[in-house]
Fold each of these.
Amino acid sequence: MIEVSMFQLFVIFVIILYIVRRPRIGENEPPLVPYTIPILGHTYNYLFNTKKFIKECKEQYGDCFSIYIFGEVMTILSRDTLTEVFRNPDNFDMISATKETFPLDQLLPYSDDKPEFHARTAREQVSGKLDINIGIVQKYLIKGIENSIGDCNEPKVVYNAWNLINYIIALPIANVLVGEEAASHEDLVKALGDLAFDLGPLLVIPPILFFIHKKLHEFVLTIPFKFGWSPVSRHRDIVVNRLRPVVEKRLKERKELGDNYKPYNDLLDYYMSRPNFDNTKPNNLHFHVDNLFSISFAAINTTSRAAVDALYDMAGRPEVLNELYEEALAFDKECNGSVTLADVQNMVKLDSLVKESLRHAGNIINLSHHMVSKSYTFSNGFTIPEGRKISLYSDDMLKAKENFGDDAEEFKPFRFVNAKSPATKVDRSYIVFGGGRHACPGRFFAINETKLFLHKVILNYKISTKSGKIEDKIFIGPLTSPSQSGLVFENRVKNN
Ligand code: HEM
């Protein structure tokens, strides 16, 4: 009898894998960058040497090329080909590409509302109501700063600043989403704020099981869900429990007041006015809470990231902070401590700093999409087949000399002061909020909350890095995370 050792089995498995997963490139496709190690392809360089590797690929193969990672071909797009993705939303789908590594529908199983619903909600109910809600945002930013940073008579050093800032940013957002009564509960604010931190790691787990089969990654990731555990369940329980009494109270008010009921300006009240709101149905509140989670996931972590990056960018540059302090003081004097939305929008130096900071977020490649038509031919003549995953070489686009000048690579905090190009403005090259039909609908809220947060912090504290240097971000594969080096807060009033 022939005996087969484990090693022989492994070799047979690898050979089959090699044959099955071999990249097949059709005619007229963007060039596939050559690689030496079969099966692994460019995976190592993609994960551990992204910046240099992708830059060299672009120099050699142009704006549009393919690499072979995790057992599949991925086409990397920059400049004109990147712009085409935003201009042709019917051909490129981000949701399906995201779901491969991040099973959002299984994490939020109660809601079957479509992404368009959340986009409209963010645009109309969150960004669209910012002028009404700016007072709430201001009130809770001040409260969050007092509670979380507080008195820094003695310099206070914060190491994981993103966590701290995330709670401050989450507080006003929670108030805007569910109203002041429900958001008075700290556990609810934490549940909404921490959601993305708890789910975020799923997004950055390298999908090594893709080497065997695409579906295997999702299958393994979601095994715990099948046994009733998911990273969302704990958060959902907290939010449902806190919202239930508020919902019942509002339903009672609606019944008693009839046409005289004065709607609250929060998202919860909007959900309650939808025809599919029915508190008598089991799990109906769970349905709306999962919708709330979709918005919180998109809103909180992203905004706090913008805020903490900008803080580090200022902290490493004392001369910039001084200039921003002068601007902040002038606005503060004029409005006696209570700024309006127009004031926030008119803080041009702060706006420029935030925009420059977002431009330097440092993510090399992101916003993967699937090409979902039969085939797609770019204006440069290259064609990609149905199902091809594409990713955007964002860092290259955001540092394009044609759009930002010869010094595009430099961090120039006041680059946009006279450019009539606010941080919310999406254009061909400034793609931090995506572009086209799906451009981020929450960006007006995000930028204004970030600016208002920074305005209050700049007025209250001198901020510096513990090292006295400009701190670098941390690379996680092609993506970045804020620095975790010490950030020092010192009371301003006393030290000036
Ligand atoms: C600085 C903070 C933020 C950044 C950097 C950011 C970035 C982005 C990006 C890159 C996209 C994809 C756009 C595309 O596909 O072209 C997006 C989509 C989206 N964002 Fe934001 N976002 C931020 C804040 C917010 C906030 C505060 C909200 C909610 C109030 C929000 C809600 C959404 C929604 C609902 C979408 C999906 C839009 C669609 O598919 O049509 N975002 N965001």
Amino acid sequence: MGAGGIGGYVGARLAEAGGDVSFIARGAHLAAMRQGGLRIQSGTGNVFLPVVSASDAPADIGPVDLVIFVVKLYDSEEAAASLGPLIARNTRVVTLQNGIDSIEILSRHVPGDRVIGGATYLSGFIGSPGEVVHAGGLPHIFVGGHRDPLIGELQTLCDRSVGLELKPVADIDGVLWEKFVTLAAFSGGTSLMRSGIGPILSNPEARIFIEQLRDEGMAVAAAAGHPMAEGFEDRVMTRWAALPPHGKSSMANDLERGKPIEVAWLSGRMHELGMKLGVATPGHTAVFRALHLHAAGGAS
Ligand SMILES: NC(=O)C1=CN([C@@H]2O[C@H](COP(=O)(O)OP(=O)(O)OC[C@H]3O[C@@H](n4cnc5c(N)ncnc54)[C@H](OP(=O)(O)O)[C@@H]3O)[C@@H](O)[C@H]2O)C=CC1
Ligand SMILES: CC(C)(CO)C(=O)C(=O)O
């Protein structure tokens, strides 16, 4: 559901590994996929699927074993409400969306015990209709449901794939919070400073700002009962260093293209939690307020 930067990439890799994958997309991207298939440009090997099952109507596809839910957060409510025709008695819905709100949103539309949280450090975007660019990042996809046989089947498929490393975990909440803190800093920093991560880390003032965002996120997470585990700062650096110097967050890419942005669920959520929990978040509050102007896309 949402065959974009992440959904298009992950779906194509699963199809390449032999999975039976249908893509839910819309607009020019859907039209191009129907006409000419789906192309993935990737440093770990390009993919071309000349014929794909793709539709904007879940009813055209019908019940499936697993839905991978990767629309933007601002499209979640509508997309989740449309999932009905895909859901059978044993269907699982795995969300790889950023932030900490996705499971709750999905659980308003799908029975909560079918919803499985997840997070990925892959990076991708739609380069042109029908083409997804894999921009690097780490290939890891963390998911809950570590004892679920369906996740076991997904694991088998990912093990056969190129470039997808599925990691089922017992504590998905911890993973989601760690991704949230890491990403809120990365997205806020690369969006507000309009720069890739390389120049930010090598400029002393810019680096202080992105590290401040990281530290504010850590303080908020701790106050919310989700302290970052030992070695967090090192893991953040490893993730940021895995991206090319010009690598930006998906939010920064969307901002540049005049698309709506997920700031309310990232720096905005940090700001809101900070107010509620009594944690100062001057950096995230500044990002949220400054980018609020562009939250709905359009104007630049
Ligand atoms: N991109 C990345 O590198 C990463 C993204 N994420 C997270 O994954 C999620 C998805 O991001 P990303 O892959 O970048 O998103 P994209 O915008 O690239 O892809 C989402 C696609 O879903 C389509 N879509 C939305 N709603 C519907 C619908 N109801 N029916 C059919 N198609 C629909 C969108 O169409 P349209 O374009 O017309 O809106 C778009 O093509 C976000 O929460 C993001 O934060 C997580 C890790 C990395
Ligand atoms: C930083 C990244 C690519 C994960 O590595 C991401 O989650 C995003 O840009 O939204």
